[in-house]
Amino acid sequence: MKPAPNSYKSTCCYCGVGCGVVVTKESNGQLSLEGDKEHPSNKGMLCSKGMNLHYTVMDQSDRLLYPQVRLNRSMPLQRATWDEALERTAAVFKTLIKKFGPDSVAFYVSGQCLTEEYYLVNKLIKGFIGSNNIDTNSRLCMSSAVVGYKLSLGEDSVPVCYDDIEAADVMYVTGANPAWCHPIIWRRVEAHKTANPDTKIICVDPRVTDTARSADLHLQIRPGTDIVLNNAIGRLLIENDYLDERFITDHTDGFELFRLQVMQRTLAEAADICGVPSADIALAAEWIGRSKGFLSFWTMGLNQSVIGVNKNLSLINLHLITGKIGRPGNGPFSLTGQPNAMGGRETGGLANILPGHREVVNAAHREEMEQFWNTPVRIADKPGLTATEMFEALADDKLKAIWIINTNPLVSMPDMNAVESALKKSRFIVVQDVSNRADTVHFADVVLPAAAWLEKDGSMTNAERRITYLPKVLDAPGEALPDSEILWRFAQKMGFEEAFNYKTTSEVYDEYVKVTKGTNIDVTGVSHQLLKEKRSVQWPLAAIGGRQSAVGSQKKPRQIDNATNGEVSTSHGTKRLFTDHQFYTKNKRAQIHPVPDENTSEPTDHQFPLVLTNGRIRDQWHTMTKTGRVAKLNKHIPQPFLQIHPEDAKERGILEGSLVTVSSRRGEVRVKAQITTDVRKGLCFLPMHWGKILGSNLVRANNLTSPLVDPKSKEPDFKFSAVQVALY
Ligand code: SF4
After folding, report:
1. Is the beta carbon of 18 within 6 A of some atom in ligand 1?
2. Are strands 68-69 and 78-79 parallel, antiparallel or unpaired?
3. Stronger pLDDT, 554 or 143, i.e. the higher one
4. In percent, how much of the chain has pLDDT > 70?
C-alpha cells in the first residue's frame, strides 16, 4: 500500500534489527511516526527507542549549524564557510601526506553512516589518498563475529533470516540481552514461544537480564567462560550421539581435532569453571541435540572479548557438528548492533577490507579495485590502523590527523583517559557530526555540521542482509549538509574532481553496486529505484541478464541464479544462505575450528578483585547523543549506576544507593550502588552510555575498561576489566 502523500517510509536508525517506520509530516508542521506494518523486519512493531525517533530531529537545540574552524586549540572555534572549512582541511591533509606519507591521516567513522557515505570515504582514502587508515566503531561491535564467520563459513555472511525464528524450537541466546537491545526480534521470539510452548529458550549470561528471566534455562556462567561451556556442550553432543555424521563428512573439515579438544575437559570440570550445575549444561545439550530448529543469537558478550573470535567459533562449531545450519530454523545468528554495520562492511568499511568484501592483503582484489576506481596511487597492501590502534598512533604522533564522522570515541572507546590524552596531543582533528553533544567537538580543529536521519537519503543493510532506502524528508537546519556531499566536496578539494563528481547519492550507489559484481555479496540487481519500489531486498541480489532492475519485475523471489551461493528464499520471500551446504570457503566446506578455552583477559588480583562488565540499558542508545535528548526515554533509568552483588557490597560496607568509587588500573568512576543478585558474586555491571553529568566525566564506564583486544579481530575486551569498588 502506498503511504499518504505527506508520509514517508524509512528505517529506524538505531539498531541492526532495521525496523521499517512511516513518518508523517502533520499539518501543524510536527512529525508523527509509526511502525511500518508492511516491513518484513518488524511488521509494524517498534520498541521504545524507535517509537520516539522523530523527536531526535524535531529538537534542534543541540544541532551543529555551520562549519567552524580554528588555527590552533588555544583559540575558539570560529564560523567559516563550507569552502573555507574544506579548503583548510584539504590543505592540512595535503601537507601532512606530502611530509609524512598517506598513513599520517585517518578516518574514524560509524555504523550509523549510510552505505553511500561508507563507500565514498573508503574510495577516497584507500583508492586516492593511498592509505587503509579507515576504521569504524563497528570494530568495537561486530568484528569478532566477522572473523568468526569468515574462518568457519568462508565469508562475512549471516546464514539465517528473521523468518527462521518461527521455524526454530531451541533458541540459544548467549552474551546478549535482546529483550532490551534488539526488542523487536525478541518480541517475535516471545510470540513464537507463546504459540509453541514447547519451544526452549536457553540464555547464557553472567547477569540476570530480562532475556534471562524469560528463558527456560539460564546458564549464569562466570564471565569469560563461554568457550568452556560451548566445548562442554560439544562434548555432550558427541557422547550422546547428536552428531550429523553425514553432514560432518560431506561438508566440514576439522571435526577430529575438535573432538580431541573438547574431550580434554570433563563435564564436571567445565561446570566447575563456568560456575553452573552440570545438569544444566547437560539439559542445554540435550535440547540442542534433539531440536529440529537450533537458532543461536549473540552480540557483545561474545564479540567484545579478548577471545571474541574463539568464542564465536566455539558457538558456530555446535551448528556444524550437528548439521544445524542452512535449514529452516537452524543457524548461528549474530545480531548486528548498529543500523548499518553490515552495509559499511559491504563497501569495505574496515581497515582490512575493500568493497565487495575484498581483502586489502589480496593482490588480485587490490588490482580489481585499482582498475575499477582508476586510482592515481596503488592501494596499500597492509591493513590500516584499527579503531584502538588509531588512538594509540595519535598518542605516539605516528598518526597526525584524524577525521571523526558520526561517532563519539570520547565515550565509546576503551581506556578513555588514554584516548583523551591522545586527542589532546594530536595535531589535527576534524569532527563531522549532527550534534554538539559529541564530546570530540571540544577537541576539533574543524567542525563540519552533518544532516541527520530524515535530512538526507541513502541506504542501509540490517542484520538479516536486508537493504532498505531511507528518503530525505526534511531540510537540514542551518548549513548542515548530507555526509555524502561533505565527502565528495572534500575529495574535489583534494584534487580528485573527476572521480568524485557526484550530484546524487543514487549515482554513488549505482557505482558501488557495480563493484560487487561476481562477489559473494553481488548486489548488481539493486538500485535506489528498485529499493523505492520494493521497499527492501536481501543480498545477494545479482542483476539478471545485465539489467540492474530486472529482478524487480520478477514475480517469484529469486532462487535460480543464486543456487551456487546456496541461497534460497523462504515462503515469506526472505533468504537464508548455505541451503545447499556449499560454503564460501575455497573447498566449499565449512571449517570446524577447535579453540582453546582459557580466557586471557586482564587478571583480577588483591588490588582489583572484582570483574566489571558493561552494557546497554533499554531506552538509551550508544553515548546518548540522540536518545539523551528525548525526555520520555530518559525517564526509564535517569542516572548511571553500579550493580553489585549483596555479599560484595556487604564486605565493603556499601548500602543500596551508596555513592561508590569504582577503580581499575586505568581510571575511576563514581556512581550510586544498586545491590542485586542479578549479578554474580565477584561481578559488577555499569551501563556504557553516560559521558558526562554536570560537567564531570566520572560516570564514563570506559574510564575503567581494559585496552586489551582480540588478536584476530582487534575488538576490545569491554566485558572483562579487573576493578575494585569502595564507598566514596
Ligand atoms: Fe529501532 Fe532496533 Fe527498536 Fe527496531 S528494535 S525500533 S530498529 S531500536
Report:
1. yes
2. antiparallel
3. 143
4. 95
Q: What mean pLDDT is predicted for residues 464-468?
A: 94
Q: What is the mean pLDDT of residues 259-281?
A: 98
Establish whether residue 14 lines the binding site of ligand 1, counting it when its CB lies within 6 angstroms of any ligand atom. yes
- Total-model pTM: 0.95
Q: Which pairing describes strands 294-298 and 252-253: parallel, antiparallel, or unpaired?
A: unpaired
| Position in ligand 1 atom list of the atom nearest CA 42 | 4
Q: Which three cell numbers stand for residue 347?
A: 563497501
Topology adopted by domain 7-58: N-terminal domain of TfIIb (2.20.25)
Beta bridge partners of 727: 660
- And the C-alpha cell for 222? 562466570
Residue type, 468: T
Q: In whole numbers, what is the pLDDT of the chain averaged over residues?
A: 93
The verdict on the CB of residue 185 being under 6 Å from ligand 1 is no
- Top-tier CATH class for 68-136+340-500: alpha beta
Q: Is the CB of 33 under 6 A from ligand 1?
A: no
Q: Which residue has the cell 521455524?
A: 167
Measured in Å, residue 622 CA sits from the centre of ligand 1 at: 13
With a cut of 90, say whether residue 259 has pLDDT above it: yes
Q: Is the CB of 49 under 6 A from ligand 1?
A: yes
Residue closest to 199 by CA, chosen among 219, 176, 217: 217
What does CATH list as the number for 610-727? 2.40.40.20
* Predicted confidence band of residue 572 (pLDDT cuts 50, 70, 90): very low
Domain 143-335+587-591 in CATH 3.40.50.12230: no
- Our answer on whether the CB atom of 162 is closer than 6 Å to any ligand 1 atom is no
- How far does the centroid of ligand 1 lie from the alpha carbon of residue 35, in Å? 10
Work out which ligand 1 atom sits closest to the CA atom of 46.
6
Contact 702, 643 (CB under 8 A): no
Averaged pLDDT, 6-24: 95
Q: Do domains 7-58 and 143-335+587-591 have the same CATH topology?
A: no
Instruction: Give the separation between CA 585 and CA 402, rounded to whole angstroms.
Output: 36
Q: Where are the domains of the chain?
A: 7-58, 68-136+340-500, 143-335+587-591, 610-727
Asked if pLDDT for residue 565 goes beyond 70, the answer is no
Residue 660 has pLDDT above 50, yes or no: yes
**Distance between Cα 82 and ligand 1 center (Å):** 34
